[in-house]
Write a structure and sequence with these properties.
Mean pLDDT: 93
Largest sheet: 10 strands, mixed
Oligomer: single chain
Radius of gyration: 20 Å
Order of helices and strands: EHEHHEHEHEEHEHEHEHE
Number of strands: 10
Shape: elongated
Strand content: 15-25%
Number of helices: 9
CATH superfamily of the largest domain: HUPs
Low-confidence stretches: 248-252, 254-258
Number of domains: 2
CATH topology of the largest domain: Rossmann fold
CATH architecture of the largest domain: 3-Layer(aba) Sandwich
Strand order of the largest sheet: 3-2-1-4-5-10-9-6-7-8
CATH class of the largest domain: Alpha Beta
């Protein structure tokens, strides 16, 4: 049985993250841990502003209690949804610094699911948020970054550039999401202009794919990778999962520098499966 961690902000609960997590667990019989990052530095109100405006300790404590009640209700809602789906689950309410807690917990997970808009601060941020960038840089397991709205996954586009990081991400998708083999799977590769339409390591790649996603379709294009990838993915239906190897440390892939994954989070509204070998 696999363990999936679903990351939640109890003050801004993501129904999309919940539904993606439940669907993944149902398809593979996984156990779910609902990780509620109740960061002690993060509230729904500006405590410093309240102090400047003369709020009493009792008034601040009342606001803190309201936040606690809301977070507890979010945890109960998560548990009820899992129970209704017939899934095993547990809840962690971590109260330290959010990014430190989630990175620590990711050591003991097979997959982590998190909404692309999560910030764990009061202010909204442009995508990708700092929390998501910091998470992807240091996380210890593959991550599914979910869009704001849920759509049932029925197709996968696997981004491949011949580098170990992209192969590793595809490998992890095969291990963690084996049900993808029953759906349409496409390998997308981009070559530089005038270098031809060959697939990097063509024989080895096709041989390997035959065992994990046997009915894979291959699409090789020429051009600037970022532009070609974004354009192609914009044409895909909302039920498409994108698989990529990104945010790796050490050797940098020809395509998947940090900025590539950032662009996909900024410009797409598709779920992203991101894995990197360290």
């Amino acid at each position: 049985m696999k363990k999936i961690i679903a990351v939640f902000d109890g003050l801004r609960f993501s129904e999309s993250t919940l539904q993606y997590t439940i669907t993944l667990a149902e398809r593979d019989g996984a156990h779910i841990t609902g990780l509620f990052l109740d960061d002690f530095t993060y509230n729904s109100f500006d405590v410093y502003k309240m102090i400047r405006e003369g709020a009493t300790a009792e008034e601040i404590a009342d606001f803190e209690m309201r936040d606690k009640i809301k977070r507890d209700k979010a945890g109960s809602h998560f548990e009820s949804a899992c129970q209704k789906a017939g899934l095993t689950c547990n809840v962690h309410h971590d109260k330290n610094v959010a990014i430190q807690d989630v990175l620590h917990e990711s050591i003991y997970a097979d997959l982590l699911v998190v909404g692309v808009h999560e910030t764990f601060i009061q202010d909204k941020e442009s995508l990708p948020t700092r929390f998501i960038r910091d998470l992807l840089a240091e996380v210890q397991c593959p991550v599914l970054v979910t869009p704001a709205e849920y759509t049932d996954i029925q197709k996968a586009v696997l981004l491949y550039d011949g580098e170990p990081s992209s192969v590793y991400a595809i490998k992890m998708a095969g291990y963690l999401l084996p049900w993808l083999k029953t759906m349409q799977v496409e390998v997308l590769s981009i070559n530089e202009e005038e270098t031809g339409n060959h697939l990097a390591d063509n024989h080895l790649m096709r041989e390997y794919m035959k065992w994990i996603f046997p009915d894979t379709i291959y699409k090789v294009m020429q051009g600037q990778p970022e532009n070609k990838i974004v354009h192609h993915l914009h044409l895909q239906p909302a039920n498409t999962l994108v698989v990529l190897g990104a945010y790796q440390r050490g050797m940098v892939s020809r395509w998947f520098r940090t900025s590539m994954a950032d662009v996909l989070m900024e410009k797409l509204k598709l779920p992203l499966f991101i894995a990197h070998n360290k």
